[in-house]
Prior knowledge:
Rossmann fold; 2 domains; 9 helices; 30% helix; globular
Amino acid sequence: MAVFPLIYNPVAGGGKRDMGRDLTAEFxxxxxxxxxxxxxxxxxxxxxAREAVRAGVARLVAAGGDGTINxxxxxxAGSETELAVIPMGTANVLALELEIPxxxxxxxxxxxxxxxxxxxxxxxxxxxxxxxAGVGFDALVIKNINPALKRTIRRGAFPLSGLKTFFGExxxxxxxxxxxxxxxxxFVIASNSRYYGGRFGxxxxxxxxxxxxxxxxxxxxxxPEMIKxxxxxxxxxxxxxxxxxxxxxxxxxxxxxxxxxxxxxxxGEVVAELPVSISVAPAALKICAGGxxxx
Length: 295
């Protein structure tokens, strides 16, 4: 009988279920045993993933939200170990992007029977990401979010934190250097994926397999400009060029005025402050994906 290591975050999605027990039962139904590897704090998933790589594990399963998956990715990047994902988080953006079922039973079936594809990763400083890196506004929103409120109302906590951040924080002017071009703005997204916080995003043409990052820069910081930006993102089309600049690049360098502290987030977790270099790591991860688009 096959045995898969399974890294899981017991508090993902509110932590209201015995995730380890439930997933063990699902995998046994499919004729597979799992070795449960429970995370207890930040960095655990990365450490456990690196140990799996050193042990020569062919396929590793990770159950949790996008933050947990990001940690696992940082342990697997550049290795031959394949990643299978059981979405258990608040937004599960990666699952949307790669058409991974959110129903645990179907996700477990894909983890056992699915084929892996090779995708690009992004790299912000020394931190890999699979979805996006954000500098400025969205990183501040994540930094300011109330954890208890997130557990209670889940996705609804993000727009509330966004309003609090917009009216309570001063957005700093950012300088972006990218492949020989220079521009300025107040919010930057470097994306490896089409989706951002759900089935929407300001980079709808992004691909995980083109060796490039899709960059979107919010040029202004007024309320009308911010509203216009997010309406464009929610509309699943390119954001209005009057408020944002969009382009593709292999990498960017983002900086701000000396002495100003501007956070950087990757896949929904604040990981650094400016200045930061963000680049693409082509074909750096093997991952199970669903749907006809990835077959």
